[in-house]
Write a structure and sequence with these properties.
homodimer, 125 residues, mainly alpha, Arc Repressor Mutant, subunit A, 2 domains, two-stranded antiparallel ribbon, 5 helices, 2 strands, 3% strand, elongated, DNA-binding
DNA sequence: TAAACCGTATTAATCGACTAATACACTTTG
DNA sequence: CAAAGTGTATTAGTCGATTAATACGGTTTA
């Protein structure tokens, strides 16, 4: 069963955050093909958002071929390994590029950036 | 004169992006105390947004003590060195922490994260 | 089979970001 | 001084994200 335990609300529309959350969990292998999604109503209650907002996210995931929804039954994850790698690459490129761009705009030298990242990596372990 | 050349529109409210942009330029030393801000109307035309949106950002910057506005004349940057370092630290902590959190959620090992960042750092030089 | 659960859809309403138009008083500048 | 430029404020309106309430038909399950 797909879990939303690691979901932490951030910036921007919630339905977009949900889509990205699922994709990141898929990249990590924490969500796998065949896994069941909790029902729209359960998710909405878990995250404290409206069922319609959840449905909006699920609609996007279905349009992208990541979940499959049979009306009446729970949705399931349906992606293959090729697609998983593709999603992972896309997310990584976007996130790493963004992080690098920010650090460079702030005038941080590469070495300092590495030590910073190493520091925060340690703190959370 | 404060420049908006490096401003690239991203996610979230524009007035918040403007505030962060100014702070990052300050962190980098590209914006310094005494620098003049372009007028609200000029900025709005530069960025293609409404003057009121620009004013909203400037109001925040003034409330935080980063700019000083005399009605009728251009606003100027007024922060001291202590404040500059404080701003830089705040931004770095937030950005680096966020980036690390994302990479870890995706199950990226530390070594791979470093090589990724190194790669994108190179590409833009 | 029947109740409980599920995906889906519709309609209306709220809220914040942003636009738009305009006005006023102050300062800089020629 | 006078014109142009500037910060500030007000009011109204648009638009998208989100909430809210509700309904319908298919699937699970006891």
């Amino acid at each position: 069963m797909v879990s939303f335990e690691r979901f932490v609300p951030g910036d921007g529309p919630i339905y977009q955050q949900m889509v990205i959350y699922i994709k990141r969990e898929i990249s990590a292998g924490a969500i796998q093909p065949g896994d069941e999604m909790p029902s729209r109503r359960v998710i909405s209650s878990l995250l404290g958002v409206n069922p319609n907002t959840v449905q909006k996210a699920c609609k996007i995931l279905e349009d992208e071929g990541i979940i499959q929804s049979h009306s009446g039954a729970k949705s399931i994850i349906v992606l293959d390994e090729k697609m998983r790698k593709q999603i992972k690459t896309e997310l990584l490129e976007a996130d790493a590029k963004k992080a690098v761009g920010i650090l460079k705009q702030m005038g941080i030298p590469k070495t300092e950036a590495f030590s910073l990242i190493g520091k925060f990596w340690k703190e959370e372990e």
